[in-house]
Amino acid sequence: MATAETVLAEKQDGFLRITLNRPDRLNAFNEEMHLALRGQLKVAAETADIRAVLLTGAGRAFCAGQDLSDRDMRDGSEAPDLGVTLETLYNPLVRQIRALEKPVICAVNGVAAGAGANIALACDIVLAARSARFIQAFSKIGLVPDSGGTWLLPRLIGEARAKALAMTGEPLNADTAADWGLIWKAVPDEELQSEAQSLASRLASGATKGLAATKKLIQDAADQPLDRQLDDERDAQRLAGRSSDYKEGVSAFLEKRPARFTGT
Ligand code: T3D
Q: For the residues 24-36, what does the mean pLDDT come to?
């Protein structure tokens, strides 16, 4: 399955592998790539036998954020309204990743800068090649972290580290990112794709409804008190307990065999 060339998509073993594909620009975002990526996330959401997504980049980078050649004002042209691009392109993308009722794994294969870093961090499980770097590049061009960066960074690594990364634009290597809890783990470069693939495949054969509810509960927890969270866990568990996968999981346990989850 292939779409517009800025994004490649391939169904594999129950999951959709989506590859950002503008390697000569380090997979920087233009409007076409935004729309192609969102189109593939929609396919993932609407296709029953796609039960996880794996997002990665082609070539040596994951994504260098906004394509700055589309922001050239050297001919005296007026500055673009970046509020509009956030409203129409970046924010819907982050919302779509967070709302997708399936696990989204990000395999950060190289540098992830600007919005490229924060879109990676918006995914559910982030693996990175040891050589990858995360760069809050915004301050270097006079901007603020976007794509959820000012929300995600302090929650993941605390205010002190969030502010320092955002204000200095210093690169953070993958091992430190993992040590700080910014990502799940750093792996040797040559193992990244196989490790991400086997994780995606494992999650794709999991209890999809339960995983989706887990994702939502953890995301929602950031904004609400324990009391409310306990209520939400009760409601989500009630629904999970009515799924076929719950019955199958318990039966498989009692019969001492691997569960065969169907995602229903
Ligand atoms: O605008 C809006 O809509 C608002 C939203 C903003 C969201 C944002 O993401 S703002 C932040 C934009 N991104 C950046 O500021 C990062 C710019 N890139 C870099 O700082 C560096 O390229 C990297 C640190 C990512 C990688 O450095 P390095 O030394 O490994 O590679 P390089 O040589 O700088 O780049 C290789 C090529 O990719 C080069 O092209 P060339 O010379 O080979 O023709 C470079 O120009 C191009 N490239 C890299 N990043 C971008 C880019 N071209 C356009 N836009 C880029 N963001």
A: 98
**Residue in the structure block whose two tokens are 């594999």:** 12
Residue 175 lies in a domain: yes
On whether both 162 and 222 belong to a single domain, the answer is no
Q: Are residues 184 and 212 in the same domain?
A: no
| Contact status, residue 26 vs residue 76, Cβ threshold 8 Å | no
State how many domains the chain has: 2
**Which structure tokens are listed for 263?**
């995602």
Two tokens, residue 168: 């200095």
Give backbone dihedrals phi and psi of 123, rounded to 5 degrees, phi first: -75, 165
Pair (226, 187) in one structural domain: no
Mean pLDDT of the chain: 97
> Same structural domain for residues 98 and 194?
yes
Would the CB of 71 count as within 6 Å of ligand 1? yes
Ligand 1 centroid to residue 62 C-alpha, Å:
11
| Residue 82 falls inside a structural domain | yes
Best probe residue, ligand 1, of 22, 25, 26 (max atoms within 8 Å of C-beta):
26
Please give the torsion angle defined by the CA atoms of residues 169, 158, 212 and 148, in that order, rounded to the nearest 10 degrees. Answer: -40
Longest dimension (CA), the chain: 72
Within this chain, do residues 238 and 163 fall inside the same structural domain, yes or no?
Answer: no
Query: pLDDT band at 1, cuts 50/70/90?
Result: very low
Are 184 and 36 within 8 A, CB to CB? no
The structure's pTM equals: 0.97
64-92 residue pLDDT tens: 999 999 999 999 999 999 999 999 999 99
pLDDT surpassing 80 at residue 172? yes
